[in-house]
Amino acid sequence: MAVLSVLEKEVMRLWSEILGVEVTSPDQDFFELGGQSLAMVQFLAMVESEFGVELPVEVLFVEGLTVGQAARAIEASS
Questions:
Q1: What's the predicted TM-score (pTM) here?
Q2: Per-residue tens of pLDDT for the chain, all 78 residues
Q3: Other CB atoms closer than 10 Å to residue 60's CB: what's the count?
Q4: Do residues 12 and 23 lie in contact, with contact meaning Cβ atoms separated by under 8 Å?
Q5: Exposed (0-12), middle (13-18) or buried (19+): which is 3, by Cβ within 10 Å?
């Protein structure tokens, strides 16, 4: 099993909080976990608040968005 980055762990924590389910893998998909557009907006606001990063919406509203992809988007935007 690969070592999780700090950002992946933080995304997993945020998604768990927002979606009300345990997120345990960087390969888990936001929308398959029950996420929808309102939850994604909440995630974007939390990322901006906690990391000072404003993520482009079009980066995250893609089919198959995983924890790992979200973490890389935060890293690329910092």
A1: 0.90
A2: 567 899 999 999 999 999 999 999 999 999 999 999 899 999 999 999 999 999 887 877 777 889 999 999 999 988
A3: 19
A4: yes
A5: exposed
